[in-house]
Design brief:
Order of helices and strands: HEEEHEHEHEHEHEHEEH
Number of strands: 10
Low-confidence stretches: none
Helix content: 25-40%
CATH superfamily: Glycoside hydrolase/deacetylase
Number of domains: 1
Largest sheet: 8 strands, parallel
Bound molecules: zinc ion
Mean pLDDT: 95
Shape: globular
Number of helices: 8
Structural class: alpha/beta
């Protein structure tokens, strides 16, 4: 009988551990600025080894509707800059929806859903990839994906739904570059993006999160005129916001279910 109970307890503990690794119910709820990180909205190609980066339009719709019906207000970086300049205040439960790399499926699938709901978002663009494809990825892992064209980026910006930031010139991991090459990626991408899309490029998202902890790279970011930088580190950003450091984000994956989504947004 003892062995029966011992086995039952062991099974229960294992189940709780497995559940708790996926669902962070054990973290304390936190207030602050939530920045969501997406890549693709759509169906992954059949042979993709990168399926986790693809959120279905159905799940994305559920996530947007959950945010709206639970009192979250989506702002973008233009809005955040106004708040930082003291010209506006944070709405209750602020959230920024970001898309890294600038894929065409974001234009096709996410843009209409956001627009319908009058929600805001930001596209983090790899300057040399605009109108091309994600050349930095190994096509053996996934067939290359189209990146939005210049016209498509202009359209989403003009709509007022999106603003944009830089995700480098060529999506290189800055932590693996010589200083002058890292500086070039940071400076030149801002200059060229501003030249094409008009507004000043105020946001930089570190490709692969690389270099976000490096003080020299951080100093290139501020010298280039960026006001905000984004890491890939998971978490909620406490208020008042400290923009001297890269802001944390919450990655949303293909298998992120609604319970996980709610727990991530409220607990980081
Ligand atoms: Zn990226």
């Amino acid at each position: 009988m003892f062995y029966f109970y011992a086995a039952a307890v062991l099974i229960l503990i294992t189940a709780v551990v497995i559940f708790s690794a996926k669902y962070n119910w054990w973290k304390k709820p936190k207030d602050g600025l939530v920045i969501l990180l997406y890549h693709h909205i759509g169906t992954p190609p059949a042979n993709s080894k990168n399926k986790r980066n693809w959120v279905s339009p159905e799940n994305f719709t559920k996530q947007l509707d959950w945010l709206a019906s639970n009192g979250y207000t989506s702002i973008n970086f233009d809005g955040l800059l106004k708040i930082m300049a003291g010209k506006a205040q944070f709405p209750p439960k602020p959230v920024i929806i970001t898309f890294d790399d600038g894929y065409k499926d974001v234009y096709q699938n996410a843009f209409p859903l956001l627009k319908e709901r009058k929600m805001k978002a930001a596209a983090l663009l790899v300057q040399e990839a605009v109108g091309k494809y994600n050349f930095w990825q190994d096509p053996a892992r996934e067939v290359w994906q189209d990146i939005m064209t210049e016209e498509q980026v202009k359209e989403i910006l003009k709509s007022g739904v999106f603003d944009y930031g830089s995700h480098g010139l060529t999506h290189k991991n800055l932590a693996k570059l010589e200083s002058d090459a890292a500086e070039y990626e940071i400076l030149e991408s801002a200059a060229r993006l501003a030249n094409t899309f008009g507004a000043q490029c105020a946001v930089f998202a570190y490709p692969y999160g690389g270099g976000a902890e490096d003080e020299e790279i951080n100093s290139f970011i501020s010298a280039a005129g960026y006001k905000i930088s984004l890491s890939s580190e998971q978490g909620i950003n406490p208020l008042p916001l400290n923009t001297a450091k890269p802001l944390k984000r919450i990655p949303i994956r293909r298998r992120t279910d609604m319970l996980q989504f709610k727990l991530k947004i409220t607990r980081g």
